[in-house]
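quick one, two chains, predict together pls
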Amino acid sequence: MADKEARCLRGQAAVVGIGATEFSKASGRSELQLACEAVLAACDDAGLAASEIDGMVRYTQESTSEVAMVSALGLPNLRYFCEVGYGGSAHCAVVGHAALAVSLGLANVVVCFRALNERSGRRFGQSSAGSVIQGVGAFEGPYGMLAPIHKFGLFARRHMIEYGTTSEQFGMVAVAMRDCATRNPAAMMKDRPMTLSDHQASRMVCDPLRLYDCCLESDGAVAILVTSSERARSLRKTPAYIKGFSQATGPDPNGIIYRPSLSVSEAQLAARDVYAMAGVGPEEIDVAEFYDHFSPFVIFAIESFGFCDVGDGGRFVEDGGIGWPTGQLPVNTHGGNLSEAYIHGLTHVAEGVRQIRGESTSQVQGASNVLVGSAVGQVSSALILGAEWK
Amino acid sequence: MRAEVLLPRPAVDNETEPYWSACQSQELLVQVCEICGGCRFPPRPLCPKCGSLRRAWRRACGKGVLYSWVVVHHAVHPGATSRVPYILGLVEMEEGPRMVTGIVGPPERLVAGCSVVVAWEQAEDGFWLPVFGPVDRARR
């Protein structure tokens, strides 16, 4: 349970700038350049000079270092920098740690970024394993368990077994994401509408997951600028106040698939803590941006963050619950990893900020509390952004 | 003639050497806590139940039930190209923990909770791996 001190962070910091490059299959430039372009775009969005950046929070999977960024951007000094574990699951956590640094006075303007040449460079869906494999993977790689989908497919199967969730329900997640992408000029799939029949006709990659259950592979970068709520009020754009954030591993996360149950997510723990810090519950959330590396994990997130009972997520989707604009909880209004771009979730944070500002291409009218979260299956993080600071 | 690319082989260290050595004699071991008797997989230094460092290996009975599985249709590694489609499973061993393994037999026969038993598969380089297959109902 988030304690009294954790609740004191509520509303202390805000996202004041978001920036991104274009999303493509081949950027034609280095990840360092992509990262710098996104940071400069975020500074421009906020109306802040890059030289004011004095803090940086990275993903451990980020290959562009702090020092490379400081030199490339010509920053005078970083007085706070750290990194948060892993890839996609870190997207809310990097922003949360930035808020922590700002609220404690360790830095004034903290930037979070993720830059990837994932499609034209190292593809996460391909194995780069050599002839010998280390760690927990030593017990998996020799069988050919070498890609994330091999593990996350086991979760999807287990959800189907225990709750009767269907491939069609996974497809309805993908279709809802695609629908939002067709309104988003930045989305890689903006010109590619998709029906449930298209989903069902797509090839099995790793049964029960089809091609259109999988996220895109993208080149691009996203940056998020965080400063104090007090400073935020004098900047260019409407602040998106950080009302709560949380992280959760749950028990036995090493190797992802050895946890006690593959039909519920560790995100239940992240949900408990983020709601406690923000002082709101699921009934006050207007729109959600859920990490969708594979379509079933939107269903896991709907359940974990309390929008329906565990096991009912498939039916929630089937009943139109996540569609824009009429669903009970519009989800991934940018198109998500499935249909906008796959930049390890910072796209989801950026979209949450756009919803608070009223700038989304699938805007939820009057959105005042936005949940950004993940129910990844390994570790999770969550963020509640608000139009009001408390 | 071009040698076929193999799937990766396990890195073997102090913690895991007994397991992989036993596999080469087609013997399946499971790590057990000498204090509380709890079994665990994959191997690790401390008992996750009682925290003890005292551990040993014991022979697993080789029986279990299928917890979840996927059928891999798309090869992500050159060593998997000639194997697709293949089945990866999580088997709940009779001793308690779940292990990743290959599943032999047609996917149509698989249902959640079905009984499986260990079999042994030898790769082209002679390396033995424990795999599991459904228990044949007719012969049971």
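The longest strand of chain A covers residues 219-228.
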